[in-house]
From TrEMBL, chain A:
Stored InterPro entries: ATP_synth_F0_asu (IPR000568), ATP_synth_F0_asu_AS (IPR023011), ATP_synth_F0_asu_bact/mt (IPR045083), F0_ATP_A_sf (IPR035908)
UniProt GO molecular function: proton-transporting ATP synthase activity, rotational mechanism
UniProt-listed PROSITE patterns: ATPASE_A (PS00449)
Matching CDD domains: ATP-synt_Fo_a_6 (cd00310)
Keywords, sorted A to Z: ATP synthesis, CF(0), Hydrogen ion transport, Ion transport, Membrane, Mitochondrion, Mitochondrion inner membrane, Transmembrane, Transmembrane helix, Transport
GO CC, one annotated term: mitochondrial inner membrane
Subunit structure as annotated in this protein's UniProt entry: Component of the ATP synthase complex composed at least of ATP5F1A/subunit alpha, ATP5F1B/subunit beta, ATP5MC1/subunit c (homooctomer), MT-ATP6/subunit a, MT-ATP8/subunit 8, ATP5ME/subunit e, ATP5MF/subunit f, ATP5MG/subunit g, ATP5MK/subunit k, ATP5MJ/subunit j, ATP5F1C/subunit gamma, ATP5F1D/subunit delta, ATP5F1E/subunit epsilon, ATP5PF/subunit F6, ATP5PB/subunit b, ATP5PD/subunit d, ATP5PO/subunit OSCP.
Source organism phylogeny: Eukaryota, Metazoa, Chordata, Craniata, Vertebrata
Protein name (Swiss-Prot/TrEMBL): ATP synthase subunit a
TM spans (from-to): 20-38, 67-92, 137-158, 170-197, 204-222
Xref: PANTHER family: ATP SYNTHASE SUBUNIT A
Subcellular location(s) per record: Mitochondrion inner membrane
Catalysed reaction equations from the record: H(+)(in) = H(+)(out)
UniProtKB/TrEMBL annotation, chain B:
Family (UniProt): Belongs to the ATPase protein 8 family.
Transmembrane segments: 6-24
GO biological processes: proton motive force-driven ATP synthesis
UniProt name for this protein: ATP synthase complex subunit 8
Keywords, ordered alphabetically: Acetylation, ATP synthesis, CF(0), Hydrogen ion transport, Ion transport, Membrane, Mitochondrion, Transmembrane, Transmembrane helix, Transport
GO cellular component terms, semicolon-separated: mitochondrial membrane; proton-transporting ATP synthase complex
Keyword Membrane belongs to the record: yes
Compartment list: Mitochondrion membrane
GO MF assignments: proton transmembrane transporter activity
């Protein structure tokens, strides 16, 4: 039972070839580029969306933080497109892989921390001690703040992995429950079907939100450190 | 849990790195955002020269092609 439930999350291989490579690269195919001034509808819509997201995310940063806008934009587009494509049946979602999320979270978080330490050393170190703490609590609080700093990339990666994996698992389970109830009681089937439809809508929202949250947190860490 | 099977971690990470850092960024860099064309404002030259007391028609734009 355990083996069958988690098999959608194994990295796919086709005749021992790692087909995970083209699967990860696939969402980039859905974003056409064009050098024309006036484009077709698809490209215009995509460019308008990117511009909307760009303005929304980067307006809180100062000049130094805005140098990260290309990185954060490509991050949110990549995660959102990968999550959305994962909602199709029998597809493989690369963001369920802890490896990939760790490889995304750790370098970005480390980049923000190192930027902060290089350019605003005193102020970034000052984050370890909130203002107005009583003197006896200072050692414990510095330890706690250090731990919470180092847990940030782990939390980023595990949050994305767990949310997408749990959503996919839930859809899988409720879908098979719907099928199993079909022969038993039609009322229960229709109720479960409604549940499945609502869950799918939720998953679409979650796909978007997780991308947003990931990028927002990275940008927040950036804001602290620039 | 198959996500913890570290034998596939290398290929996954290696596939993600060019997808995210190379191809996505190149696609976003190749989007052009142009300003909508607007009319250029042609302002007439005003008499702010203190040695010219009278505005004459030599101050109209394009009436004196600059031959030098």
């Amino acid at each position: 039972m355990n083996e069958n439930l988690f098999t959608p999350f194994t990295t796919p291989t086709l005749l021992e070839l790692p087909v995970v490579v083209p699967i990860i690269l696939f969402p980039t195919l859905l974003l056409p580029t064009s050098k024309y001034l006036i484009n077709n509808r698809l490209i215009t819509i995509q460019q308008k969306l990117v511009q909307l997201i760009l303005k929304q995310m980067m307006v809180i940063h100062n000049t130094k933080g805005q140098t990260w806008s290309l990185m954060l934009m490509s991050l949110i587009i990549f995660i959102a497109s990968t999550n959305f494509l994962g909602l199709l049946p029998y597809s493989f979602t690369a963001t369920t892989q802890l490896s990939m999320n760790l490889a995304m979270a750790i370098p970005l978080w480390a980049g923000t921390v190192i930027t902060g330490l290089r350019f605003k050393t005193k102020s970034s170190l000052a984050h370890f001690l909130p203002q107005g703490t009583p003197t006896p609590l200072i050692p414990a609080l510095v330890i706690i703040e250090t731990i919470s700093l180092f847990i940030q990339p782990m939390a980023l990666a595990v949050r994305l992995t767990a949310n997408i994996t749990a959503g996919h698992l839930l859809m899988h389970l409720i879908g098979s429950a719907t099928l199993a109830l079909l022969t038993i009681s039609l009322l229960a089937t229709s109720l479960t079907l409604v549940l499945l439809v609502m869950l799918t809508i939720l998953e679409m929202a979650v796909a978007l939100i997780q991308a947003y949250v990931f990028t927002l947190l990275v940008s927040l860490y950036l804001h602290d450190n620039t | 849990m198959p996500q913890l099977n570290t034998s596939t971690w290398f290929i996954t990470i290696m596939a993600m790195l060019p997808a995210l850092y190379l191809i996505m960024q190149l696609k976003l860099l190749n989007t052009t955002y142009h300003f909508s064309p607007s009319q250029k404002v042609l302002s007439m030259q005003t008499t702010n020269n203190s040695w010219q007391l009278k505005w004459t028609k030599i101050y109209l734009p394009h009436s004196q092609p600059q031959h030098s």
